[in-house]
Predict the structure of CRISPR-associated protein, Csa1 family.
Amino acid sequence: MPGLFARRLVLRSVRRLYAWSRADPVEEELRGWSWDRPPVKPRAYLGLGVSEVAGKYCPTRRDVWLRRKMGLAPETTEPLAKGRLVHEAVTAAVRCASRGLSRGWETWDILTYCLGRFRPQGNGDTATALKAYKSTLVTLLGEVEYERLVSGGSGLPVVSEMKVDGTPLGLSPQLSIDVYAENIVVDFKTGAPRDFHKLSIAGYALALEAEYEVPVDYGILVYVNPSDSGLRVLYRPVYVSNELRRWFLEERDEIVDMLVSNREPPKDKNCPQTCPFYRVCHQ
Ligand code: SF4
């Protein structure tokens, strides 16, 4: 089973995108630091989550309406619970490894310490969550050892659950990025890849650019799913192109307009039964 953070593999996949970025360089007006003027400047500051803008599971965006205007909480469906468990496992592993390294511990000691610390919460697929946790730890610490041997480096090459202020873009002041490494945004997903998943990479890249004024042009979607032999891990490198930036900003603007103008969206015609609001919309 490949590790979740095969860093060299990840970087190699991103390098394939360099040609795209040379052919389609990002326009200045679409950088996050252009937050004081359209199209990056929002029409209202509603503190939206990146997942609200990027999670286009409901085509009409009625889910955002139900949460924000009706004050309803989504039901915890099985796919949602499974996704949360794996997500929590991966980020917990990165956090624990990071803590041990910042204290100057040896990688073997960190591994021993961290392996005994993770207790998956809830009644979901805890075996998968444990596998994801162990796999992340082993790969991350393996990468650190490799760095030490090859270059004498000692740092963890990633920052997990990085907080970034999305306020200038009309987003939440407390956005949390799964992993940020070498100017690359990493976002974990479960389930089948969907084209709109790359919107989340664009949202975080824009927010990072607004806060730190450094270009963030690449991201990776990492899909973690159970398989017969353990875990299946899929990487999808993403170039944060002009088109993708515009798409994210348009989605943000549509949600802002819907909420500000008090326009209730209709139910979709093909609602999946796995939608956390299915019972609200179809009772
Ligand atoms: S049930 Fe349908 S309309 Fe309602 S939130 Fe879900 S996808 Fe949207």
Notes: Strands lie at 159-164, 175-181, 184-189, 218-227, 230-239. The chain has one domain: 7-262. DSSP finds ten helices and five strands in the chain. The CA atoms of residues 255 and 261 lie 10 Å apart.
